Amino acid sequence: AESVAAASLQIAQGNTDLSQRTEEQASALEQTAATMSELSVTVKNNADNARQAAQLAVNVREVARQGSEVTSDIFGTMKSIGESSGRIADITSVIDSIAFQTNILALNAAVEAARAGEQGRGFAVVAGEVRTLASRSATAAGEIRQLIEANSASVSAGSTLASRSVTTMADIVSSVGQLSDTVEEITAASAEQARGIEQVGIAVTEMDGVTQQ
Questions:
Q1: Chain-centroid distance, C-alpha 186
Q2: CB of 32 within 8 A of CB of 211?
Q3: What count of other Cβ atoms lies within 10 Å of the Cβ of residue 6?
Q4: Considering just the CA atoms, what is the radius of gyration of the chain in Å?
Q5: What Gene Ontology cellular-component terms does the record carry (predicted)?
Q6: How far does Cα 63 stand from its chain's mean position?
Q7: What are the pLDDT digits (tens) for 88-135?
Q8: Is the CB of residue 121 less than 8 Å from the CB of residue 180?
């Protein structure tokens, strides 16, 4: 009888220890489940933020691409202006040459009119007016040439800056593209992590439920 009582006491103590351990395990599982739940929320928030960052990166990439196109258009326009200025300079040189030749012809005409005496007086007046007109044309051509030279310098500087801007914008587009790809990878990894943590949380909750029973 004593041995049976002793055995019963040991069994009772064992059950008490088992019950206590089970309660401790259940408590630990509850804490783990709560922690996993909080972690799951945090990871989901991170995934949402990553998705928003990915969308922002896509928008920035589009803006950078448009900026690159605009800069390229500006560079093309500056180049066209430079070419037009060059053609205008050529035309101005022709006008200057014509004015010079006209001035010589008018001078020769004035000499011939002087030789003709009274009969060439009217022609001499016309020759003088032609010389005056030729002189004014030459002066105007010179002023135009100066303006074109100044304009060409500005266009050249602008073209250089535009060319650098094109290169810079291309680098920006490339960098933003790499950033966008990286953010997309982070987004995918965060989503996968969120799913994994959610599954672990579900498993812990199920284990807690079994332990409580």
A1: 22
A2: no
A3: 10
A4: 46
A5: plasma membrane
A6: 6
A7: 888 888 888 888 888 888 888 888 888 887 777 787 888 888 888 888
A8: no
Q: Which among 191, 161, 178 is positioned nearest to 49, based on CA atoms?
A: 191
How many Å separate Cα 7 from the centre of its chain?
Answer: 82
CB 96 within 8 Å of CB 146: no
Q: Which two tokens stand for residue 111?
A: 């000499």
30 token code pair: 């509850």
Within 8 A by CB and 6+ apart from 82, the residues are 152, 155, 156, 159
Residues in contact with 70: Cβ distance below 8 Å, sequence separation at least 6, in sequence order = none
Q: What is the CATH number of the domain that holds 83?
A: 1.10.287.950
What would the two tokens of residue 75 be?
Answer: 């560079």
pLDDT category at 153 given cuts 50, 70, 90 is: confident
Collapsing DSSP to helix, strand or coil, 1 comes out as: coil
The answer to whether the beta carbons of residues 118 and 44 sit under 8 Å apart is no
Task: Answer yes or no: pTM beyond 0.70.
Answer: no
Structure tokens at 59: 């928008």
Residues 150 and 144: their CA atoms lie apart, in Å, by: 10
The Cα 61–Cα 63 span in angstroms is 5
Domain count, the chain: 1
User: Residue 213 has what DSSP assignment?
Assistant: -
State the residue range of the domain holding 57.
Answer: 2-212
Extract the tokens encoding 159.
Answer: 């073209």
